[in-house]
Specification:
- The protein has 5 helices and 3 strands; from the N terminus they run H-H-E-H-H-E-E-H.
- It is an alpha+beta fold and 115 residues long.
- The protein has one domain: Arc Repressor Mutant, subunit A.
- Helix 1 runs antiparallel to helix 4.
- The chain is elongated, with a radius of gyration of 23 Å.
Length: 115
């Protein structure tokens, strides 16, 4: 079900460490050690974050000899963005209506007078 997949994606994105990992992977593939560098957490903790991201489909992991690297898979981000896009349109429409209403109010209000 699409909603369940979105729940997993948004759950993975809810953590700031995982978002930072995705930001780093947008620059290119990286090993666990490379991904752990900016954080004050263990390699094991980073590996757990990577597992969550992998289960959400946001990354893929590969092994070459003794190195295990991770790569960004942006397709689930596209799904989440498409879902959120409906709400952006909703807010854009409501803000445009509010703006029009405020302009009408400004035109009908007399300017303040100094006494």
């Amino acid at each position: 079900m699409q909603d369940d997949r979105l729940s997993v994606i948004f759950g993975a994105l809810a953590d700031p460490t995982r978002r930072a990992i995705l930001t780093r992977l947008a620059e290119g593939d990286a090993t666990v050690s490379e991904l752990a560098e900016p954080f004050s957490i263990s390699l094991q903790a980073v590996s757990r974050h990577l597992k969550v991201l992998e289960q959400a489909g946001l990354i893929t992991r590969s092994r070459s000899a003794q190195w295990r690297s991770s790569s960004l898979n942006a397709e689930p981000l596209r799904e989440a963005t498409a879902w959120m896009e409906r709400y952006r349109q909703f807010w854009d429409t409501n803000f445009a209506r509010l703006d029009a209403h405020l302009k009408r109010m400004q035109k009908s209000d007399p300017p303040p007078t100094d006494q």
